[in-house]
Design brief:
Length: 429
């Protein structure tokens, strides 16, 4: 009976949670059929069956499981599967012994009033509405939808679910994102540890907390330095427009696609940059996989979709694949591998008008390229001042993995390729 284990969706994923089982124990399933929706620290994704047979669920929805842990089994077709294990009931804590109260004698004239007051105090308080219910009506929603609703201020009771049996799913919450619910938080007086009335405290999502932890680790553990170059991109801009106008499939080629291809070829020439420092040793990667830091969608954190084997793809393939992995990541439905395995990253903020910036290395990678906006400036050409298009690029380097001379040579190669873009449209060999 083959195990279905919790897959690893991204490099930072340590555990996953079954948001919803699409099948139940005892169901016949076929290869490729969606069994469950799984939530990681970065996104949700569909878990598919890898064999035909009878499903046996081992981990109920809402329960986290470590990477590689078995969450279900698929038995032989026709075999009966045992029912899924029931979630263990939580035992209430033993009641604390009540402290003995001193007996107070009341005057006879006050006894009747005191007894009535005691009866009033012992009257049961109004039962609070349980989590997941609104005014006695149960609200069916996935754990991810509940978390997003809390983060975005959406009232689940006001939504109509589009999921099975009217269940509210992530897409319903995002669609209603502009409808805030009443803020039930009470203002607290300012103290040394607590913010004042003019401060809103927002709990980070699991993804945001993971990003914060990893960025703090990167800055505190990686001895980094930066190298900046300025490249003339007149020819690249012109060639990009020619591709869009005359080549089928190139209508959406971007400058980032040019950079992915240039960095992939430069990494092939300088494999030291395509390496990591792990457990006191160099790990030189055989594959060249380029991560693309992209602006997140609503309710998401920083995303870095990956173009795998970028050095083996031409410009059109890179353009199509990068667009596909970005769209899947932003929709919260990445394929397995879309967010993992990067060996080098690019962060392009040029479209936001940023001239130059420094990006933080995403471990275990040893480098990340920060790209600024393309600007029209006066440049000197053959002793004459002429208009030109320039772009500044800054490489952040893990100094444990490679050094200044290698960084300078790598950036010189990237600059050469961008300034002579015909080399980037030559089919890979």
């Amino acid at each position: 009976m083959p195990d279905i284990n919790m897959p690893k969706l991204s490099d930072t994923m340590e555990e996953g949670t079954i948001v919803e089982w699409k099948k139940k124990s005892g169901d016949q399933v076929k290869t490729g059929e969606v069994l469950a929706e799984v939530e990681s620290d970065k996104a949700t994704f569909d878990l598919e069956a890898e064999a035909d047979g009878v499903l046996q669920i081992l981990v109920e929805q809402g329960v986290p499981a470590k990477i590689g842990a078995p969450i279900a089994k698929i038995g032989e077709a026709g075999a009966a599967a045992p029912a899924a294990p029931a979630a263990p009931a939580k035992q209430p804590p033993p009641p604390k012994p009540a402290a003995a109260e001193p007996k107070v004698e009341l005057p006879s004239s006050a006894k009747g009033e005191g007894q009535a007051e005691g009866r009033e105090k012992r009257a049961p308080a109004k039962q609070e509405t349980q989590d997941g219910q609104q005014d006695g009506r149960e609200v069916k929603a996935s754990p991810l939808a509940r978390r997003l609703a809390e983060e975005m201020g959406v009232d689940l009771a006001a939504l109509t679910g589009s999921g099975p049996e009217g269940r509210i799913v992530k897409e319903d919450v995002i669609a209603a994102g502009g409808k805030p619910k009443t803020d039930r938080r009470r203002p607290q007086p300012a103290t040394a540890q607590q913010p004042g009335l003019d401060v809103e405290v927002i709990e980070p999502s699991r993804m945001q907390a993971t990003i914060a932890r990893r960025m703090a680790e990167a800055k505190s553990t990686i001895p980094e330095f930066q190298v900046t170059v300025e490249a003339r991109v007149d020819l690249a801009v012109s060639l990009r427009q020619q591709l869009k106008d005359s080549v089928a499939g190139a209508e959406k080629v971007t400058m980032t696609d040019f950079l992915v291809r240039a960095c992939a070829l430069a990494l092939r020439k300088f494999p030291e940059v395509n390496s990591s420092w792990i457990d006191g040793k160099f790990q030189r990667k055989r594959s060249i996989n380029i991560g693309l830091a992209v602006a997140p969608s609503q309710g998401m954190g920083l995303l870095v979709p990956v173009v795998h084997d970028a050095d083996q793809k031409d410009m059109i393939q890179i353009s199509i694949e990068s667009r596909q992995v970005i769209e899947r990541a932003r929709s919260g439905r990445p394929n397995e591998g879309d967010l993992s395995g990067a060996t080098f990253s690019i962060s392009n903020l040029g479209m936001f008008g940023v001239d130059e910036f420094v990006a933080i290395i995403n471990p275990p990678e040893a480098g990340i390229l920060a790209v600024g906006a393309i600007k029209d400036v006066p440049v000197v050409e053959d002793g004459r001042i002429v208009p030109g298009k320039v772009m500044r690029m800054t490489l952040s380097v893990d100094h444990r993995v490679f050094y200044g001379a290698t960084a300078a040579q790598f950036m010189a190669e990237v600059k050469r390729l961008i300034e002579n873009p015909v080399t980037l449209v030559v089919p890979p060999n």
